[in-house]
Amino acid sequence: MHLEVKHLYKQFVTRRGPVVALKDINLHVETGEFVCAVGASGSGKSTMLRIVAGLEQPTAGDVLVDGQPVTGPGADRGMVFQSYTLYPWMTVEENIGFGLKLQGAPIADRYEQSRYYMDVVGLLPFAKALPKELSGGMKQRVAIARALASQPKILLMDEPFGALDVQTRESMQGFLLDLWRNTGTTILTITHDVEEAVFLSQRVYVMSARPGTIRRELSIDLPAERDEALRRSSAFQDYRYQILDLLRQTESTAPELTAPPQSA
Amino acid sequence: MTSHVPIPHNPPLVRDPGPARMLRPSTFWTIADPIPSRLSWLLMGLSIGVPLVLWWLLASTGWVRPLFLPSPAQVVGAIGQLWNSGALPKDIQFSLMRILGGFALATVIAIPLGTLMGTFASIRSLLEPIVGIVRYMPATAFIPLLILYFGLGEVPKILLVFIGTLFFNTLMVMDSVKFVPKKMIEATYTLGGNRLQVLFQVIFPYITPGIIDTCRVNMAAAWNLVIVSELVAATEGLGRRISVAQRFLKTDEIFAGLIVIGLIGLAIDILFRMFLRFSCRWAVK
Ligand SMILES: Nc1ncnc2c1ncn2[C@@H]1O[C@H](COP(=O)(O)OP(=O)(O)O)[C@@H](O)[C@H]1O
Ligand SMILES: [Mg+2]
Known about the structure:
The structure holds two protein chains of two kinds. Chain A is 35% helix and 26% strand. By secondary structure, chain A is of the alpha/beta class. Chain A is globular and about 50 Å long. Chain B is mainly alpha-helical. Chain B has a single domain (77-283), classed as MetI-like (MetI-like fold, Orthogonal Bundle), CATH 1.10.3720.10. Chain B has ten helices and no strands. Chain B has helices at 37-61, 72-84, 87-119, 121-135, 143-150, 154-177, 182-190, 195-232, 238-247, 251-279. The longest helix of chain B has 38 residues, at 195-232. The A-B interface holds A 53-55, 72-75, 77-79, 81, 83-85, 87-89, 98-99, 101-103, 130, 132, 143, 146-147, 150, 152, 156, 248, 251-252, 256 and B 1-3, 181, 183-184, 186-194, 197, 201-202, 205-206, 208, 280-283. Bound molecules: adenosine-5'-diphosphate and magnesium ion. Residues 12, 14, 19, 21, 39, 41-47, 212 of chain A line the site of adenosine-5'-diphosphate.
């Protein structure tokens, strides 16, 4: 697996004129990596991820997966959104098996696969539950399992834990790291949470807004085994402050907020 | 950060807030929350009971002439008599057949049409203007044409119900597609789904409860239309029964017809609600 984003530009045409959401984005993700893009809201993170997923077309530039240009969404790039995407009429088991169903897999395979991934995310006892019966963290685990069950080359996540409370978020981060280590999945996550980015990633892209650009690429050289104690280590905090400083700099160098036009 | 805008001191005091005012608790006027179920049943009983008692009082005091307002007992008597003579079952049968025929036809067309219009902006642009215009033409205004084309049999009556419910059903089904979260559709694409699968396996199941509810609401319109069509030309049916009773000044039979229509309507409403609960467990709170 090799994801490459080259000279990506995205301009939205709005009623108030064109908005440059992304300017010359270059990044790559290799097999088995866990990479985060971190930036303030409005820095174009979602737009970038949606273009990689094929849900949005770039104004210019290329997205290549194993050298093949991305022209639309496909099962090779699984996606986990922040919320609202589980099928409410399907049980946990049916939700997780749905990707394989769409791809025409026989029912026995679907059963086996969804059992396996329910086990991976610890939801076997909830196989027959409906999404409305699950907590927020459990719903996101189903969404992750559903994306993984389609066996994507890369898992894309848009602020997957953004709607969760702090305790749940931290335990989900630990869960996601375990999952990544045990399944060898390649993951590209975007987040505005600096601590989350440092905790999860091997590499981080720091993004700045107006227009959305990549400010810096950082390797996070922390041990592969990461636990809650690591969050308090000085190495962890150094990375955190380094990124926070970068984000702060980009904010102060961004053009000043302009006053609204005076009405005549 | 150096770009802080200085914040001015001392916000202006517009008005002395005085002692803190708080919202008083209330059971009856609770907004957005259920009321206790005992209160709910009590109020529902009153909803039927109060009009019934008022009716009975008005009729028994003789304020209103019995010709205009028969007593509840007289109406119950009229229902019993019409039932025993076999006239009422036959009327019900004919009216129901016309309603169900016209409404089923309208629904069978409205579901795919509305779903397609809701799903594809192209189909919507293609059909919304014409549906929007025809919808505003009162269905009853089509009666002369229907009689002209199809005579006085069952066909024009069924078609009247059909015309009168098709467009509302279509537009309401179309509207329910709006509530399918866009991200749910996009998630389906990233699971390898194509557009046809999104339509049949995501959008359609998602709007099924909405469709059932649409049918339930629009059923009332179907009753309206069938009664009107029978007032114009019919030899049997509940509407026909009412217009005959009027000619002979049998107000008790008019009331009987109205009450039977109300009860059957209520029964159909309850059936739809039960069907919704039964078929879409996930959508029921
Ligand atoms: N569909 C759209 N139409 C117009 N502008 C958009 C659209 N999507 C995003 N934008 C704009 O692009 C910029 C980046 O948005 P987004 O990618 O959502 O950032 P982030 O996910 O980092 O918060 C924002 O200024 C936003 O207003
Ligand atoms: Mg975003």
